[in-house]
Amino acid sequence: MKAAVLYYSHKGKTAGYAREIAMYLWSKGLNVSLSSVSDAVPEKLSDCDFLVFGCWTCGWFVVGQHPHKRWKAFSRRIRGLVKAERTLFFTTYKFRTGSMYTCMKRTMGIPVPCSVPFLKSRTGFLTESDKKQLDQFIAMYSIH
Fold first, then answer.
1. Long-range Cβ pairs for the range 15-19 (8 Å, 24+)
2. Sign of torsion, CA 36 37 43 47?
3. Where are the alpha helices (DSSP H) in 28-127?
């Protein structure tokens, strides 16, 4: 199975978190590509089984959190290339994630009732809880 891990990072924390996610998925046997949105090629997503897509949390300290405009612009280009149920969002944050999840779904055109897994990290490091969520995400579509 193939997974694309795409991210937009401001100071490197989100890039580090994306690398940890990619390495973990690779350790689970997936063929993983890792790319920033500025280097990503949307056409390559058509043969991916999973999209793991993240951005750092922009916005004020407590309210108005949202994905960066470059993440949003790229998101609009890849809408619908990978099914919503095979998409997982992630973000890094300093204080709170606030409305990040809702904004990410809306930008990608994912309906409100559709549940998309969401990882968030203050440190930029993958936790045991994150690993369990990734395991559950890929297990739903594993072919045995």
1. 16/124, 16/125, 17/54, 17/90, 17/92, 17/121, 17/124, 17/125, 17/126, 18/52, 18/54, 18/90
2. positive
3. 69-78, 100-108
Report the DSSP beta bridge partners of residue 55.
8, 91
% of the chain exceeding 70 in pLDDT: 93
Give residue 126's pLDDT: 96
Which residues contact residue 116 at a Cβ distance below 8 angstroms, ignoring those fewer than 6 apart?
84, 85, 87, 88, 89, 101, 105, 110
What pLDDT is recorded for position 144? 43
Strand partners, 32: 3
Total H helices, total E strands in the chain: 4, 5
What pLDDT is attached to residue 97? 76
How many residues does the structure list for the chain? Answer: 144
5 φ, ψ (degrees, to nearest 5): -110, 110
Q: Which residues of the chain have pLDDT under 70?
A: 60-64, 142-144
Q: Which residues pair with 6 in a beta bridge?
A: 35, 53
**Which residue in 51, 18, 50 sits closest to 141, CA to CA?**
50
